[in-house]
């Protein structure tokens, strides 16, 4: 030991988790499908048809008009080919095939805590596959992602992690994607604020205003609360500079759906929640 070390003591070494947190939490992992955008817009003739994409324009049946809200067209976000997604990872509560088109009021960006926000987003299901037609589309590819329950849930708390281990736990998903927030279908959401996506969807979709404690503490909210367990994450869309997606202050959009309605291919009642920093 050197003179200065003897005099002042050695610098403390950072405490590293001694356990394999991924292995410890493996039984909690819920597979999801990460939706990855191609780096450049489609240009010219494509060697293969593109069935899933971000931006550009949707491909809708002649009897379905582009969704509008408050007198203006909603912004088109993405088109997902369910057969392609299911090929990456089978999700039994979603249709085996068909197409989902996602829309949102990108100008006003409602947060989904007010029942009056209904109509400011839309999910349209088509039973057949479609092909991208606009050159400004960004092709979408899929990869399997392991997602983990938010740390405040009882099953996560039961792991009994130390502070250092919680840091590792919170980064398990990010490490798979090499970024903190990403686009995903199904699985546990990557939260920015409290774990209230399902509860907020249940309350607001049933007419309860969730913008203050009064709504959350109301008798109606208590009556509706058990139904929150029916909601699933359908599509999480992150703020993404490459797609010019900015939700609030670097937030996420969460399209939520009741499992029974998804199984029945009824996506018209999907609810949307926004969380940001």
**Major beta sheet summary:** 10 strands, antiparallel
Mean pLDDT: 93
The counted number of beta strands is 12
At the fourth CATH level, what is the homologous superfamily?
YwqG-like
CA-based shape: globular
Q: Work out the helix count.
A: 10
Give the helix proportion (percent range): 10-25%
What is the topology, as strand order, of the major beta sheet? 7-6-5-2-8-1-9-10-11-12
Secondary-structure-based class equals alpha+beta
Radius of gyration: 21 Å
N-to-C SSE string, H for helix and E for strand: HHEEEEEHEEEHHHEHHHEEHE
For the termini, the CA-CA separation is 47 Å
Question: What's this entry about, in short?
Answer:
The chain is α+β, with helices and mostly antiparallel strands and 277 residues long. It has helices at 3-8, 21-24, 82-88, 154-157, 163-170, 172-177, 197-205, 213-216, 219-224, 259-263, and strands at residues 30-37, 53-54, 68-69, 72-73, 75-81, 99-104, 121-126, 138-147, 184-185, 231-238, 252-258, 271-275. It has one domain (18-275): Hypothetical protein YwqG fold (Roll), CATH 2.30.320.10.
Secondary-structure map:
Layout: H1 3-8, H2 21-24, E1 30-37, E2 53-54, E3 68-69, E4 72-73, E5 75-81, H3 82-88, E6 99-104, E7 121-126, E8 138-147, H4 154-157, H5 163-170, H6 172-177, E9 184-185, H7 197-205, H8 213-216, H9 219-224, E10 231-238, E11 252-258, H10 259-263, E12 271-275
Antiparallel strand pairs: 1-8, 1-9, 2-5, 2-8, 3-4, 5-6, 6-7, 9-10, 10-11, 11-12
